[in-house]
């Protein structure tokens, strides 16, 4: 079973994402900020990361930079999932190594399409 | 809605659009037509049916359009577009190298996501087709969806259902809550109103036909008749793409599967298949004339 790390400071979003992704046969891990997410990745790289942008302690953009510099950190497919829905943010995320980008609000169809797009389904 | 009203609507929809409603789809008719009746200031479906029987053609057109399903999204099912990029376009680039032109038809184009997905595929493969004359013809029964398609304006939800993010950044500009497809991609697609049940031969011949997720709503004879029309409008080495839940198996032998590319078909040029196609076409012409 593939693994997905859901990184979001909102427990509601984590719960919604977990439900959708478990329905797509992913085993889910959760983190509420970028720093905790990096700890999870040090213990074992997930296959995918669903990543919020604005979070306390360490935001998603900084997490992504750190992840891509870690040994094996180029492996996980990273899908941003954020309220930052302008072209400038999207371009920054892609430049930093994001594979896909979801603009909140999202639904099951969108998550499925994006995970399909990056070859996770 | 009375059983008689339902039967009237079933018959009319079958004749006008090919939509084959089973006897248990009253809920679907009600969910689509009650809001339409309200817009026309009618009390309900019986009054709406009465107005249609009185010959209010504009209302009948709106009823047919409201009942035809328009769900679509960019790069729907992904695989047919992968086939297009990986196999079909490279093969046609070679086969049409002397002619340097390509015609693609999207036969149930709805609000434009499918023909625009094809246009983006071609734009991404522009190195293969520099200086070529490329035509993408998008047709649909509904004028309302064609109008939306021409505008090329999509909601945040619509651009996220299947459209890779790098293509969103590359080909769209943000306009408030909406995303506008750029003029170059929009200009690659011609939108036309067309009923697949009527004579469609005036569109000419194509190298690729996308006819996806429309035949599922038709009965077997109607499907066979449409396949017979499509095969005559496809070049002998052309390609037909059907929807994920659609197939020619058990309906017609005028098409055969494209090798190793699920969902794609090629004309079957054997004499038996051609004779079968001619027969289905005669039936379709006779049915349209009735």
Automatic annotation (TrEMBL), chain A:
The keyword Transmembrane does not apply. GO terms for biological process: phosphorelay signal transduction system. The modification 4-aspartylphosphate is found at residue 52. InterPro entries: CheY-like_superfamily, Sig_transdc_resp-reg_receiver, ST_Response_Regulator. It holds the Pfam family Response_reg. Keywords: Phosphoprotein. The keyword Transferase does not apply. Residues 3-119 form the Response regulatory domain. Coiled coil: none annotated. It comes from the Bacteria. This is Two-component system response regulator. It comes from Bradyrhizobium macuxiense.
Automatic annotation (TrEMBL), chain B:
It is an enzyme of class 2 (transferase). Keywords: Methyltransferase, S-adenosyl-L-methionine, Transferase. PROSITE patterns: CHER. Residues 1-256 form the CheR-type methyltransferase domain. GO terms for biological process: methylation. It comes from the Bacteria. It catalyses: L-glutamyl-[protein] + S-adenosyl-L-methionine = [protein]-L-glutamate 5-O-methyl ester + S-adenosyl-L-homocysteine. Its EC number is 2.1.1.80. GO terms for molecular function: protein-glutamate O-methyltransferase activity. PANTHER family: CHEMOTAXIS PROTEIN METHYLTRANSFERASE, CHEMOTAXIS PROTEIN METHYLTRANSFERASE 1. This is protein-glutamate O-methyltransferase.
